[in-house]
Specification:
The protein has helices at 2-11, 119-122, 133-141, 165-168, 185-188, 209-223, 250-260, 283-286, 295-310; strands at residues 32-41, 45-48, 57-61, 66-73, 77-82, 85-90, 94-96, 112-117, 145-150, 178-182, 228-232, 267-269. It is of the alpha/beta class. The protein is globular, with a radius of gyration of 19 Å. The strands form 3 sheets. It has a 5-stranded antiparallel β-sheet, covered by helices on one side. The protein has 2 domains: 2-96, SH3 type barrels (Roll), CATH 2.30.30; 106-310, SGNH hydrolase (Rossmann fold).
C-alpha cells in the first residue's frame, strides 16, 4: 500500500494549492520548485514560515511525524503541509517515510475524545443530540472529556463545500487522546449533485476526496502524535448505489478511506460494509429520512463502534 502511495505521489503532476481553504503556499526568498514526496522527521523540528532558520516558527513537527512535501528550494529546505498550512523544514532534518502506528489502550485513561464529523455526528434530527452515537460511545468508554465537532452539511473536502473537515480540524482541542472522524456522505452528496470528485490514491489535490483524505490524515497525525486516530466509513443511505453527477457511488468514498488510512497507520471502522449497520432494508426502524439515524439507529452504531474500539 505504501509503495503504491509513494509511486502515485512521485509521478503525480504538482498542483499548486488545490486545497480548499488551506491558505496560500508561502513563498520564501529562495525559489520554491515543485517537489512531491512523503517524509518523516528525524527529530523535533520547528516549521518555519520561510526557508530560513531565522524565519518565524509556525509550530513544531515532532520526531517520526509524517509530512507531505510540496516544494523544494536550492538552499536545502523542503516546503511541507503542516496542520492546515504550509511551512519549511531543513531537508537535513527529514528521512524516508516510516509508518508510525499509535494504539490507544485503557491505560491511556482518562480518555479525552474529539469527534469530527457531519450532521450524523452532530446528532441532527434527534430531539436530544446526547443520544447521538458519538456521545454514547464517549459514555461507554467512560471518557473524561468529549468534544463534538459535528457540523450539518460538512464534507471532508472539495472546492464546492464550505466548512470542510480539512478546514475545521486545526481548530479542535489539542489535548484529546482519541480522535474519531466520521464522514464522506456529504462528499458523495446525492444523485442530483456533483459531490467531491473522487480523484485517486496518492492525490495531492485537496479538491478531490482522496487528496483531502491524504492531507487530513497527515495533518491529524502531526497534530495528535501521541493519540489514536480512528476514521469511520459512511453508513449506507437510501439510493447509495445511484451515481452522483461525477459518476461516483457512496461505496467508492468508503473504499477511499479504507485505501488511504493504512499508509498513516490509522484504524478504520468500516460501517459501510457491516451487515448489522445496513439500515436500508428496514429504514423506518433505524432512519429518520433515509440518511440520518434515529435514536435506535444511533444506539446500534454506538454499540458497534464501541466494540470495534475495545476488541
Amino acid at each position: 500500500m505504501l509503495r503504491h502511495l509513494k509511486q502515485a505521489v512521485l509521478t503525480a503532476a504538482f498542483c499548486m494549492l488545490c486545497i480548499a481553504g488551506a491558505g496560500n503556499i508561502s513563498h520564501a526568498q529562495a525559489a520554491v520548485k515543485p517537489h512531491a514526496a512523503y517524509i518523516s522527521m528525524k527529530e523535533d523540528t520547528p516549521v518555519r514560515k520561510d526557508a530560513s532558520p531565522s524565519a518565524a516558527s509556525i509550530g513544531t513537527i515532532i520526531k517520526n511525524a509524517p509530512a507531505i512535501v510540496t516544494g523544494k528550494t536550492d538552499n536545502g529546505w523542503l516546503q511541507i503541509y503542516y496542520i492546515g498550512q504550509f511551512g519549511f523544514v531543513p531537508e537535513s532534518a527529514t528521512m524516508d517515510y516510516v509508518l508510525n502506528v499509535r494504539s490507544l489502550t485503557r491505560a491511556t485513561a482518562p480518555l479525552k475524545i474529539n469527534a469530527l464529523g457531519d450532521s450524523i455526528t452532530f446528532g441532527d434530527k434527534l430531539d436530544n443530540s446526547l443520544y447521538g452515537y458519538a456521545p454514547l460511545v464517549s459514555a461507554m468508554l467512560g471518557a473524561e472529556k468529549f468534544n463534538n465537532y459535528g457540523l450539518n452539511g460538512s464534507a471532508v473536502g472539495g472546492l464546492n463545500h464550505v466548512n470542510t473537515f480539512l478546514t475545521r480540524y486545526p481548530m479542535m482541542d489539542r489535548d484529546a487522546n482519541l480522535i474519531l472522524v466520521f464522514g464522506g456522505t456529504n462528499d458523495y452528496e446525492f444523485t442530483y449533485m456533483a459531490g467531491t470528485p473522487l480523484g485517486q490514491l496518492g492525490d495531492f489535490r485537496g479538491d478531490t476526496f482522496y487528496g483531502a483524505l491524504n492531507y487530513l490524515m497527515c495533518g491529524l497525525k502531526q497534530m495528535y502524535p501521541n493519540s489514536e486516530i480512528v476514521f469511520m466509513t459512511p453508513l449506507k443511505r437510501v439510493y447509495h448505489n445511484r451515481p452522483n453527477l461525477n459518476g461516483h457511488i457512496l461505496s467508492q468514498y468508503a473504499d477511499a478511506i479504507l485505501e488511504t488510512a493504512p499508509a498513516y497507520g490509522i484504524k478504520v471502522i468500516d460501517l459501510f460494509h457491516a451487515p448489522e449497520l445496513d439500515f436500508i432494508s428496514n429504514s423506518k426502524t433505524y432512519l429518520v429520512d433515509g440518511l440520518h439515524p434515529n435514536v435506535r439507529g444511533h444506539s446500534v452504531v454506538a454499540t458497534y463502534v464501541y466494540h470495534e474500539l475495545t476488541k
